[in-house]
Amino acid sequence: MVTGRATLLLVLSAATLPLWPSPWLGLAVFAGAVLVLSAVDFMLAAPLRDIELTRDGARTVRSGETATVSLRVANRSPRVLQADLRDAWVPSAGATPSLHKVVVEPGSAVTLETSLTPTRRGDRPAVRLTLRSYGPLRLAFRQRAGRPATPQWTLRVLPRFDSRRFLPEKTARLRTLEGSTVTRGRGQGTEFDALREYVIGDDVRSIDWRASARRSDVLVRTWRPERDRRVVCVLDTGRTSAVLAGAEPRLDAAIDAALLLAALALRAGDQVDLLAVDTAVRATVSGGRHVLLPRLVNALAPLQPSLVETDFELVVGEVLRRERKRALVVLFTALEPGALGDGLLPVLPRLASRHKVLVAAVHDPLLAEARGDPYLAAAALRSLGERDRVRSALTRHGVEVLDAPVDTFASRVADTYLALKQAGKL
Question: Which CATH number is 230-422 given?
Answer without folding.
Answer: 3.40.50.410
